[in-house]
Amino acid sequence: MNIFILDEQREYREGMKRILSLHLTDLDITICDESWIEEQPSKFDESIVIIDVFSYPDNKGLKLLEKVISLGAKVIVLSMVKDNEQTLDILSRKVKGFVLKSSSGQILVNAVLNVIENRIYLDNKLSCTVLEGYQKMLQMVKSLVFTSELVIPTRPKGLLTKREWEVLELSARGLSNSEIAQTLYITDATASTHIKNVVKKLEVNTTIAAVLLALKNNWIVFEKTEKVSQIS
């Protein structure tokens, strides 16, 4: 099996390769850049990709993540950040592992070994973060969406386009960008662009933050048959 390392920080990716090569001697470990994804896409099918999406500027890392997953790669995400919303947002993208950069090299090795066995691996340091974020989301959904038999969403006029509201609602239902694209008969790239525009217009940092904001303000509900009213 091939392992590809994607990280903007040269010293870190080289150190990562040394650690993995020492413990996983039977695997082919390669440092690559984003050009490989376009030039040699077949190499990523059934491979393991280790990537720090937050080491890239803007949303470039998230786009690379979506791309390698669409190519059939099993992805382990690295991060310096331990944030509820960002962690849940990454996990919602069907990654196979999530490891903090501050953890030991053995933790990364364990993540790779688990992913090879088709198991999902979550750094123990992130367990509380995930649980807290999940509980927060459940509480918000229960209190804001299911408090009455009839909930009619009210959406600020001009805040988002009709398509962007559709994409946001589907994100709230747990659909990935690829699944949203299939549902709305659009390309994955178009779905990703809509998500990026929603996040920017709502002035938040992640898709999950956008969903939570929409739930909090009663902009979306889960019943498709309910009428949507617009407010000026």
UniProtKB/TrEMBL annotation:
Where is this chain's protein located in or outside the cell? Cytoplasm
Q: Which stretches make up the HTH luxR-type domain?
A: 153-218
Q: What is this protein called?
A: DNA-binding response regulator
Q: Could you tell me which PANTHER family the record lists for this protein? A: TWO-COMPONENT RESPONSE REGULATOR
- Annotated keywords: Cytoplasm, DNA-binding, Phosphoprotein, Transcription, Transcription regulation, Two-component regulatory system
This protein's source sits in the domain of life called Bacteria
- Source species, please? Bacillus salitolerans
**High-level lineage:** Bacteria, Bacillati, Bacillota, Bacilli, Bacillales
SMART domains with a match to the protein in the record = HTH_LUXR
